[in-house]
Structures are given as structure tokens and as C-alpha cells.
Amino acid sequence: MRSFFFIIGGLLTLDTIALYTVSNGNLGTALPAIIGVPLILLAIFYPILTAWFATPIGHVFKVIIICTYVSFFLVAGAMFCVLKSAEHEKVEPNSDVLIVLGCAVRNGRPSLALRYRLDAALGYLSQSPDTMVIVSGGQGPQESMSEARAMADYLIAQGLDESRIILEDQSASTYENFKFSKAIIDERFSPDSSVAFVTTGFHVYRSQRVAAMHGIEAAGIPAPDIWYSAPNNYLRESLAVVAYTLMGQLT
Length: 251
Prior knowledge:
The chain is α/β, with parallel strands linked by helices. Helix content is 58%, strand content 12%.
């Protein structure tokens, strides 16, 4: 058991260290280490803790720790299934509006994750010539321009007619993506306009629920995730959905 705890904890911690070298740090990046470091400590101090766990107080703590880890992985596993199922919803072509949710811009250019979203949007727009696209994303503290502007430039460079693009460059969260996009839709389109959106696959489920909170009934088009960060993203998103639901921030 001591070797098992050390190996699992070490692999989880190495995952965090590796991701920090190639991506921006966030909760998804840190979570494996948050889970793994206690397992490493448990392995290191296993002889001492084994004796302490045999005491009445230690036994209670042992049960709490086991229940916490088991509950965590059961909830994460269940939510992973929910997130994956949301990615397979059929999205009909020729929606009136397509919303592309922004993410990081680096050196004035869309990050790899954002390019994947934009490429997915281009695939849909090529089959839906009358669909207008709202590129939604403000300017973060480490970004030289708004995500919306970078997205528009990318789409235009790929041959999309600029007249089909509407910029929403004030949002700083998924909630605001849909809040501000809804204002644009209400102002420029008819009340019965059909809407679809593009985001990374793990983010489709929560985005769809946030959209519904703003009165937008929209199907989500999943863009591919970056393979080495996908497990972390699904783990973080699973916990985010549970937390936001418990806090009443998701309907």
C-alpha cells in the first residue's frame, strides 16, 4: 500500500508540474497535485500514521479520508459521464446565430484551444452560409487585445466574410458570454431566432445550462480539447458544475 500511494501520488503531482510548464495555471492544473501530495505524505509517513490510525481518533480520521477520496472520485466519474453525453447532442445546420466562446489569447493570437474552437466554428459556418457569428470574449489582464478581436481576425484570415461577424468584447466569464450575447441577439435578431454555440467539449454541458439561464435555448458544438490537458479540464469542470449547482449559480 505504501508503494501504491507513493506511485499514484507521484504521478498526479508530476502531471501538475508538467502542465504548469506548458499552460496557464488554474484549478484544473493544480487539482492532481492537491490530490497527489497527501498520498505522497501518506506513503512517507506510513509507519507512523498506521500506528496513529489504530487509535480511536485516528480511526475516525481514516474513515473521513477514505470517504472523502471515494466520494470525490465517484462524483467526478459521474460528472464525466454527464459532460461527455452533452458533447454528442445533434446540432442542426443553418442556425440564425452561432456564438463562439472565447478563451486565452497569447501574443495577439488565439491560443491552441481557441483555434480549435474557431476551426469547429468554421466547419459549421461553411455548411450554414446564412448564419451570423458572435465572437464573445473580452480582454484579459495578460492579453494584448480582446479575445473577440483575435477571433474575428482569425476567422477573416481563414476566408470568412467580415460582414458575418459580430464582436462581443466585454465578457470575462461564461456567464457574461451569454449575457452580453443575448443582448446582441435581442437587439439585432428576431425573438424566434435559432442559436448554437461553440466551445471546448468539456465545457458544453455547463455552457448550455448558463445559456438557458439567459433564455437562450442552444445546442453546443464541441471543439477538440488539447490532449495533455483534457483530463485536468474534465476534472475541474466536473467539480465546477457540482459547486455552481450547489451554490444556485446553475439552473
